[in-house]
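Researcher: Go.
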Amino acid sequence: MMAQGDGGGASGRGRVLVVDDDPALSEMLTIVLRTEGFESRVCSTGDRALAAFREFRPDVVLLDLMLPGKDGIDVCKEIRAESGVPIVMLTAKSDTVDIVLGLESGADDYVVKPFKPKELIARIRARVRKYDAATPEVLQIGDLEIDVAGHQVTRGSEAISLTPLEFDLLVCLARKPWQVFTREVLLEQVWGYRHAADTRLVNVHVQRLRSKIEHDPENPEIVVTVRGVGYKAG
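Model: Structure:
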């Protein structure tokens, strides 16, 4: 399993790295995060983002898509290459291509500027919720074994590396293999949305999950599409 974030936020709710070149927005986010009990650090360029990530070891990253130097897509790929830490994109664009590119690069969620601070905090809380000591639970789905409490997915003796969000998505489906989940229900149960949101989040993450767990992602047998409805465990 990829690490969710090694910072752990020993004090308060956790650590948040803000990667954004807008000083006014960064200052506002720092105040809001402090008020909500988070420890935060700001990095204003994409070129320094990976070094700041490695040094600060945050529990979640707020990442602007449009950055001077290295852009947010490249930063997202760099962080994702070495960590499963939750990444929430900040985007001033409602441009479909950029949002999907960000999600495909490894981001877990996104908010469009201008956003309400409460909305952003809700997105952060959904991603950094701490896993309490869970009751031992092992699920089978296809030829995969899921150790829910240990956050491990294995096929035979091989461990499969998933981000925390991909793991949550798989567990949600595997716990109820008889149920077809609509994208809206998955958004609520996995992402924490309680209102209409972008179902592309679900589609892109299902594709990412399939690329890691399916023998043939083009012909999935574990996470199956139910045409016109949503997804179910195979």
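Model: Residues 1-11 have pLDDT under 50 and may be disordered.
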